[in-house]
Task: inverse folding
């Protein structure tokens, strides 16, 4: 292993706590990752030493806060592989970013148009497009899955033959771990003239990106799934694409000038960042992004894959559990069911043993309906998890199985 896992884990204070008298085994990372000390320190430092509103102040604190705030945008430009720092828009999260895009791109949608999504989508990348179609009389086309939980690429090609106006898909399935070939899918969608939107909430946590080198138009992520704070997200878009979007919200910050007769809107990125932003969390997230940029991602990706492979083998050897999502290319999500057992019962018994997982539909209810399941028990791994924690998961699953079935 090319990195020091013990040293890495030591940067996450919460990992040393106990739950129900047992060492915490945190395997709910697809829902939200834990936070490194550098983020906690940056957040406290901002409030203790720099707090002020940004961009418009005429004093030292305002200048310091603005510099720290905008430094996060610069770090994200590097992490995302953006061509221009103005392409980085701060939002409340992936959900707000998707609603912003549906509101903006939706102004050009008319009756009879087609919007393409996939059967893998989180509700945040389904409901906004669904409701837009209902409001405009457009058609929502859903790309099917194969038996492995991968997108049916022939069905995707058939959907593109309808010349959709918007194509939106996840980078990674939060429920199954499937990694979609986003660069190839974006290239095909642009060839038919569609806007290409990617839900990157699950994909961004697995290493820096090169978005400007793809045909993707927009990519959204949530900071709390990327080792950062809650209530903060990022929308990346190509400058020319973002510049076509009308303001999503109106008020302070997003204006150049206002009279009672008219308003002149601000330039990017501020036109899409109305009101006082989430300054403290942006500053803290900047510390996280710079920390992420310092890591050996080749080693970390290999580590995450080792965790997933080992966990998959151990659960298969345990027997009884079904693993949902067997894509050839997937990341650290293990979605399980035990026939005849509700997933919430599995989650409860694992929690009693100190193992934290997620149960339910994972905000992908239509996908669960396709699978014929009420939900799954989902373990999801991050860069700080260990093989010993996988062993703890499997031991807890074995105990739960014996209690529930015998």
Result:
């Amino acid at each position: 292993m090319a990195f020091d896992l013990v040293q890495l884990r030591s940067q996450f204070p919460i990992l040393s706590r106990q739950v129900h008298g047992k060492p915490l085994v945190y395997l709910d990372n697809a829902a939200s990752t834990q936070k490194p000390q550098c983020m906690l320190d940056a957040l406290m430092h901002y409030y203790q030493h720099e707090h002020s509103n940004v961009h418009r102040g005429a004093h030292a604190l305002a200048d310091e806060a603005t510099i720290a705030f905008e430094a996060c945008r610069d770090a994200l430009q590097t992490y995302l592989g953006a061509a221009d720092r103005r392409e980085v828009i701060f939002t409340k999260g992936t959900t707000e970013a998707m609603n912003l895009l549906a509101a903006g791109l939706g102004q050009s949608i008319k009756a009879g148009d087609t919007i393409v999504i996939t059967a893998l989508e989180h509700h945040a990348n389904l409901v906004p497009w669904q409701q837009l179609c209902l409001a405009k009389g457009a058609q929502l086309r859903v790309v099917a899955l194969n038996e492995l939980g991968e997108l049916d690429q022939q069905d995707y090609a058939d959907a593109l033959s309808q010349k959709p106006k918007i194509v939106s898909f996840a980078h990674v399935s939060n429920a199954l771990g499937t990694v979609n070939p986003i660069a190839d899918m974006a290239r095909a969608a642009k060839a038919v003239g569609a806007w290409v939107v990617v839900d990157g909430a699950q994909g961004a946590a697995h290493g820096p990106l090169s978005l400007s080198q793809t045909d993707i138009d927009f990519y959204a992520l949530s900071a709390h799934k990327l080792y950062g704070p809650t209530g903060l997200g990022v929308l990346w878009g190509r400058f020319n694409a973002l510049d076509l979007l009308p303001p999503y919200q109106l008020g302070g910050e997003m204006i150049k000038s206002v009279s009672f007769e008219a308003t002149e809107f601000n330039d990017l990125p501020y036109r899409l960042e109305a009101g006082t932003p989430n300054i403290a969390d942006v500053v803290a997230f900047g510390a996280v992004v710079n920390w992420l940029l310092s890591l050996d991602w080749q080693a970390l990706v290999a580590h995450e894959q080792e965790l997933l492979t080992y966990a998959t083998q151990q659960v298969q050897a345990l027997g009884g559990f079904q693993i949902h999502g067997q894509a050839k290319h997937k990341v650290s999500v293990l979605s399980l069911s035990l026939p005849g057992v509700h997933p919430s019962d599995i989650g409860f018994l694992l929690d009693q043993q100190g193992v934290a997982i997620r149960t339910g539909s994972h905000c992908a209810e239509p996908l669960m309906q396709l699978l014929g399941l009420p939900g799954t028990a989902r373990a999801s791994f991050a860069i700080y998890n260990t093989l010993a924690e996988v062993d703890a998961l499997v031991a807890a699953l074995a105990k739960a199985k014996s209690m529930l079935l015998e």
